[in-house]
Amino acid sequence: MIDRAQVEHVARLARLALDESEKDEMARELSGVLEHIEKISELDLADVPPTSHVVDVTTPLRADEPTACLTREQALDQAPATQDGGFLVPSPGAAPA
Amino acid sequence: MSDPLELTGAQAAAAIRAGDLDARELFEAYRARAAAEELNAFTWVGDEAPATDPDAPLAGVPFAAKDLFCTEGVPSQAGSRILEGYRPPYSATVVRHLQEAGAPLLGKTNQDEFAMGSSTENSGYGPTLNPWDRTRVPGGSSGGSAAAVAAGLAPWAIGTDTGGSIRQPAALCGIVGLKPTYGAVSRYGMIAFASSLDQAGPLTRDVTDAALLLRHMVGQDPNDSTSLPFPDPIALPTAERLDGLRLGVPSELSSDGIAPGVREAFAKTVALAEELGASVDETTLPHAPHALAAYYLIAPAEASANLARYDGVRYGLRVNGDDGLLEMYTRTRAQGFGAEVKRRIMLGTYALSEGYYDAYYGSAQKVRTKIADDFREAFDRFDFVITPTSPTVAFTLGEKTDDPWAMYLNDYCTVPVPLAGLPAISIPNGLSEGLPVGFHVIGPAFSEPRLLDAAYALEQAIGFDGAEARA
């Protein structure tokens, strides 16, 4: 139902490195779960509106006034690597294959 | 006075207020027990009792918080190795509310990684054991909070429920667990799993404690735009009778797949409810059998987006590779996430990917509408819907870890509720094979005060004794 090639594609989208044995296991386990999930395709849902949220979510606006927020030191405090007051990351390097 | 660790939270608060109990001594007694515990219920325990005010509403009675609540300067790892050692610069609103009400933080409790699981076996820090039988799981994902309260390692605790993660461990550990109406409690500072479902709630020794903690957890928060003001005051429950109360038993959630011992306990509680004056009739939630499928599309889809933030840049683990930024991301996530979290990220990413979105995620959102409609119709005829909380009692460690769907079936009765945003409570209603069973009462949105009253009347009539697990 979901094969190794699809697993590799989805893992790339999800930014997850999977080793070879994990790929086969993931394909088997996801297929097993999807087999149960696909039962919803038996339902007639043609005219049913989707629910993304049970609360009527609107985007409230607050007054545009400065309020307290994290300091730069606090924001950087838990970072694995920093430099010159910013987060330090490896070079973007080569584009993904 | 009697052993202060045998007091409920409300009783301890009253004793402190009356001058019969010292809050510092109570904290120290719990701290010592929590620090020496052998259930792996805690991932962090405080070392010193903060000064508290005996006149504050919670009077210095300490609480335990599931690891995924951000606690300023205190490890908040959500059960994940990817957040090992993470100490947030701020506390979750609900933690702050409880502290402001006079409850100091006793410790952080173990959980399934990012709340994904029903047994606490998915924690990156080892499983928690069930205090009733240490060869068994406490349920999950709030298994550490449930085990801590059941074992008397904490007077009370808070957890989160996305598909059953408060109610199912409460049932398996013989305590009370309440999932509030979506929006009643701020999610600010809760490390997110599935944002349209996640809701914080209390895990307590009795219904009165659940009411007391909930009273200090609810409220609209400018930092959570989905939070709502709670419409009524939350009084401590006093009901002794259930006269005139109409209870509906959905046929879909009360027969197939429910263990005989759980069914037997359920039938006894139904008979008790009738003796207390309630009327009990069959009802139907036709789409409830499809709730698990909808849930295992919606929750992983939201999780796949929420967990994109763990990229080794701002906090937590970083694993560098030889090939730049992209490899750092993929290796960090490969090493930092456990197997179940990877499965759900994969499932969610797949369900949202091009070509599959409508068939999976889109359909699941429509099923969600039908489930909410089913409940609405049931509440036209009934005050509450009742089911067993969990189809089985606590299972043995490792029993269900090889088959994801077998594990997911634990949530069969609990998972329709958050899809509809409703409140529900689980109370212990007896033992089967010497292990606790839970009784599940589901109400309309913001019906918590009535729900607590009904649960209280049932609790008094059931007379469940959890002392064995605290021994």
Describe this structure as you would to a colleague.
The complex is a heterodimer of chains A (97) and B (471). Chain A has a domain at 1-39: Glu-tRNAGln amidotransferase C subunit, N-terminal domain (Histone, subunit A), CATH 1.10.20.60. Helices cover 34% and strands 4% of the residues of chain A. Chain A has helices spanning 4-13, 20-37, 72-76, and strands at residues 82-83, 86-87. The mean pLDDT of chain A is 91. The radius of gyration of chain A is 22 Å and the shape is flat. In chain A, a hairpin with a 2-residue loop joins strand 1 and strand 2. Chain A has a two-stranded antiparallel sheet. Chain A has 97 residues and is mainly alpha-helical. Chain B is an alpha/beta fold. Chain B has a single domain, classed as Amidase signature (AS) domain (Amidase signature (AS) enzymes), CATH 3.90.1300.10. Chain B has 15 helices and 11 strands. Chain B has an 11-stranded mixed β-sheet, with helices on both faces. The longest helix of chain B has 24 residues, at 358-381. Chain B starts with 8 loop residues before the first helix and ends with a helix. The model of chain B has no long low-confidence stretch (mean pLDDT 96). Chains A and B meet through helix 1 and helix 2 of A and helix 8, helix 9, helix 10, helix 11 and helix 12 of B.
